[in-house]
Automatic annotation (TrEMBL):
SUPFAM superfamilies documented for this protein: Kelch motif
Organism of derivation: Nicotiana tabacum (Common tobacco)
Biological process per Gene Ontology, one example term: negative regulation of cytokinin-activated signaling pathway
InterPro entries referenced in this protein's UniProt entry, alphabetically: Kelch-typ_b-propeller, Kelch_1, KMD1-4
Highest taxon of source: Eukaryota
SMART domains on file: Kelch
The name this protein goes by in its record: F-box/kelch-repeat protein At1g80440-like
Amino acid sequence: MVTLTITKPHGVITLSVYDPEKACSYDLPPIPEMVDGLPMFSQIIEVGSDLMVIGGFDPVSWRVLDSVFIYNFKSMSWRRGADMPGQQRLLFGCSSDSEKMVLVTGGHNDDKNVALRSVLLYDVEKDKWIVLPNMVMERYECKCILTEGNFHVIDGYTTCTRGHHFQQSAELFDFATSQWCIKDNFFPYIM
């Protein structure tokens, strides 16, 4: 289990890992390029023996980052991954297949005024990004899950709804056809 820790007195955000076998937690070393702490609003995801920190804001300059930092639990060290291509994004969805691939979906641009439809797939082993076809709908603050071998992008806001109305749909990416399809009322209990 990975947790965020805010150190005092400076408020620097760091990563801590809980080891259930030893019943203890320990702090990960800071990201070498991020001495002022973890990027704010970054996505943190586990892929195989790696932990990835993707995007976010620089905690000092508030500059939007397209960076990828990868911590390997075997070597106990950080490395820099290839930056996310295309326009910078914030509040995007993120999921992994738990082995070697990471999906980044939607978000909004760095001016925070346009929700995105774009989708990226990152191969951790090859350190390469692949641009996938755009989703049908723009979405930011969406969630991604991998279920039954397919990535689903769930909910999120559009440019027009900006924090007022979550989408009540999901999109499924079909790797065989390289197309997205809408799943309306994915969560019918959401109002």
